[in-house]
Amino acid sequence: MINIEVPVQLDKERHFRFDLNAMEMYEDIAGEGFGVFMKELSSIGDSSDKVDLGKISFKRLKIIVFAGLKHEDEALKLQDIGKISPGELLSSDVLDALLDALLKGIGDNEPAPLAKNRAQRRAQKKK
């Protein structure tokens, strides 16, 4: 089995995993197909570090983060994710991990293009 988990630092180190169970959980809670979120995610920004907040639903973001983390913490509640600041959820590190985990979940093991571009720019800024 391919490892589809991606580490992310939140309140502690956690691991996003988007298997069929997580995708189904998203659909059950959100009341819409998983593809709706994927379409929204592809429109939130270009290759820059900035996220267009007008294009993202925080409700969807909260649900997808919950669905991707629930596998390793049965006690985790949707309300727990709601306690994380939007700024933290929209940080480059968290978004990059989320994008990579979503792509791994659907069988694309290449890093997300947005994640690649952000990582390259951060490395150039440090020089």
Based on the model shown, name its key terms.
127 residues; mainly alpha; 7 helices; 8% strand
Condensed summary:
With 127 residues, the protein is mainly α. 54% of the residues lie in helices and 8% in strands.
Describe it:
With 127 residues, the chain is mainly alpha-helical. The chain has one domain (5-126). Helices cover 54% and strands 8% of the residues. The chain has seven helices and two strands. A two-stranded antiparallel ribbon has the order 1-2. The radius of gyration is 14 Å and the shape is globular.
Tell me the layout of helices and strands.
Elements: E1 5-9, E2 13-17, H1 20-30, H2 34-42, H3 58-69, H4 78-82, H5 86-89, H6 92-105, H7 113-126
Antiparallel strand pairs: 1-2
Helix pairs in contact: 1-3, 6-7
